[in-house]
Amino acid sequence: MITDSTxxxxxxxxxETYHPSxxxxxTTNFANLARGESRQExxxxxxxxxxxxxxxxxxxxxxxxxxYSVELEIISVEMxxxxxxxxxxxxxxxxxxxxxxxxxxxxRIEGLAGNSFSSYVRDYDFSVLLPNYNKDKAEFSVPHNYxxxxxxxxxxxxxxxxxxxxxxxLPVICLSVSTNRTYHRTEKQHPVLGVEFEQREFSLTDQxxxxxxxxVRYFMPVNSKAPLAxxxxxxxxxxxxxxxxxxxxxxxxxxxKVYRPEIYNANAAAADCYKPSLKHQDYSNTxxxxxxxxxxxxxxxxxxxxxxxxxxPYHDVLEKWSAxxxx
Length: 327
Prior knowledge:
Layout lengths: L6 E8 L14 H5 L5 H19 L10 E13 L8 E14 L4 E13 H15 L13 H11 L2 H6 L5 E5 L6 E8 L3 E5 L5 H8 L3 E6 L7 E5 L9 H18 L1 H4 L8 E2 L17 H20 L3 H12 L1
Parallel strand pairs: 4-5
Antiparallel strand pairs: 1-2, 2-3, 3-4, 5-9, 6-7, 6-10, 7-8, 8-9
Helix pairs in contact: 2-7, 3-9, 4-6, 4-10
């Protein structure tokens, strides 16, 4: 069965020379930027956006606004298929890891694992399983065990010896808020994360991450245009340092300005009662080339790849393991 040694971690620097590996999901934020004629300009520009945002938020003892820069590594977790008697592996998840460079004190500061989140099984669940399950149904619904396998695989990864050897803290994942929910500004304000928003009903993504063992809170940092969804274990406000949180905000807000400019690069900040919309017209485009329609098509293709190469061949053993893990 699946054991602690089933998982392996590979690290790859994300910079302007980055090329996606054959095992990387092409829908991943960072992989999508590294394609086409504008690939190097895309990468250079988004990395500069990240550094600029980091220095804006870490403004103390930083009069010239260039004290810090952020280095990124792509963390790929692969799953050994030896549990099914195969001499092969499957690319399970990818996240980003940040390292903060303090040029003033000439030192490197560990950041956080997580940030972005990429998963082949998630592609399968959202782009293949759900559409098939709801085909010809009058009302949308989800299977009773929806997300269980993915959640148990993820929890196994973060509890594994190899994860603990590589990272001191559990991951924080930062995503866009849902366009199907309304968010309400509260009176709570964190010095780094900013104003907290709340909503009355969890989105499907929120529920999916709950299966992964993660809570969610929504914050809009200073000078941001919309709240971000932060998924975490433990206590988001006290388990992580100021610079760690800033690294996550600067990375993921920059990506969201590229991928969802209608929300995160809008020309006006979110109102007290806020419903995000990709049909919003009052926004500014970045100089970074991105094809959102192609990304959606690739998600379906990669979901079908997962069905063919992972879910169908190993369905019985995966379901048996997941049921025993949950028990």
